[in-house]
Structure formats: C-alpha cells, structure tokens
Design brief:
Helix content: over 70%
Distance between the termini: 33 Å
Strand content: under 5%
Number of helices: 14
Low-confidence stretches: 1-19, 158-162
Largest sheet: none
Order of helices and strands: HHHHHHHHHHHHHH
Structural class: mainly alpha
Radius of gyration: 18 Å
Mean pLDDT: 78
Shape: globular
Number of strands: 0
Amino acid sequence: MSNENSVIDAKAVTDNGGPAPGGWLLGTLGVLIFSFALPANAWAVEGFHPLAVTVWRALIPGLLAVPILWRMRAPVPGRGSWPHLVTAGLCVAVGFPLLSSIALTTIHPARAAVILGLLPALTAAFAAAFGRERPSARFWMISGAGLLVLLAYLTTRGGAGGLTLGGGDVAMFGATCCSAMAYVLGADRAKVLGAPQSMCWTLVALLPLSIPAGIVTVFVQEPAWSARSVTGMLYLAVASTLLGYFAWYAGLARGGIARVGQVQQIQPILTVCWSALFFADALDPLTFAAGAAVAGLVALGQREGRR
C-alpha cells in the first residue's frame, strides 16, 4: 500500500454529508474485531497483571507498526499532527486498556458491555464538541433510542449485574470516555494521514514509554502462563489494537465520526454473545430481538445521515 492511496481526502467527508461508500462496512468490520476485546481482556488478566496487559498491548503493536510504516514509505507527520496522535495514543493504548483491565478484575465482561454501550453516544458528543461535526436533531433522537434499547436489554440480564455501581463500573466508564476521545482524534488524523498510518504513528509515538515499561514488567511480574491468557494478550495486541483500528479509523474518516460511530451500538450485543459462547453464560432469544432492534435503529441513523 502506498501513502497516496491510503489517505482519505478530507474534502470528501463533510459535516452534514452522508457516509462515503465503504465507510459503514469498514466501521462494521472494526466493531466485529473490537467486540471480542473484553472477553480477550478477561482471558489476559487471568495470567497477567492489568498494568502488564496495558504495557504489552501498546508495545507489541508499536513494534509491529515500525516495519508497516517502513513498507508503506509513510512520511513523518507534520508538527501539527503529533498532539492529536500522542493524545489518541495515551487514550487508546494506556487509558482504555488499563482502566478496562482494572474493571474486569471485579466485574463480568457482560456488565462491562453495559457501560461500553455508552461509547457511540460519547463518540458522537465528542465529535460534535471537538470534531466540528453537526448531526441533525433526528439523528440524535434515533441514536438515543438505540442507546435506550441497548441499556434496557443489557441491564435486565443477570450477567450484566444490575444497576448498582462499584469501583469496576467507574473504571469501565473512564475507559469508555478514553476510547471515545481516541476515536475522534484518531479519525481526524486518518483523514490527513490515512487510517493505517494514523494508528501506526500513534503507537510509534508511545514507544519511548512502552519499551522501558515493557522491560520493567518482565522483571517485576511473574505471569501465570496459559493458553487462554496468551491468546487473550495476542488478540488484544494484534487484532484489537492494530488491525481493528485500521478498519475503524478508515470507516470513521470516510463516513463521519458521529454517524459511523453509531454502528458500535451493536458491539455490546456481540460481546454478550461472545461471553455466552466462551464463559458459559445463558443466551436467551431476547438477545437476538434486542440485536435486531439496535441494528434497525443504527440503519435508520445511517439513512438520516445520508439525508
């Protein structure tokens, strides 16, 4: 892939225009990859300390990003891009994984999915506040309806744990805010640099911190090695932190952060399905009904965006 054909023309993405062709599909692919991140994180913290999960989740993809950028012959970003890239990196590779790992030591992945259901709304709000996007009032109403359906469903499931809040819930909410801010900043740079370059430079910018931190964790931690913990760690580092963001940033940049971001309302439903499959949770038919309702509202939101 060359640098020229990976950059998204910022003029093609307007504040009030609809998603460009492929934006919704790329966003859906990113959501599918992200949907297994919480179960994978739960696996990873079975054998690694949450701090070690955070460090290696940034270090491994950061080291992989170097040859990717070299192969692309990607130019070094301009001075104005680095504040966005560094802040997005701190949010996506430090804030979210650290806080979500802490949360998953005390709450179930399905309960974490309830809180993560706030992500599309927070992303749209941050895009309006910092990304200069102005979705219509009908768009906000449809998005809010999808969020209400999602939370109403998830909070009725036993695995979600009800509405009583604890330290793990607060940590997961902080992680969700970090992720939303990273989406806005990273997608903004993806319009200029290209989606792969935006994420790769974000991870490379953190290497001065992640390399020494990774060395320290090797000496201070005694991991409990297992197939599940290693699989979870590798999935978080390679699939969720690297490949998933290639698709996700491209989708947000092409179709608009607020609009394509609403596709993520489907992610908690998918996470609950993964939790049922890998954690032996009960999966009732209501899951499919709620998923269909949320998917329909997301489709209406996308149609409203195209208007």
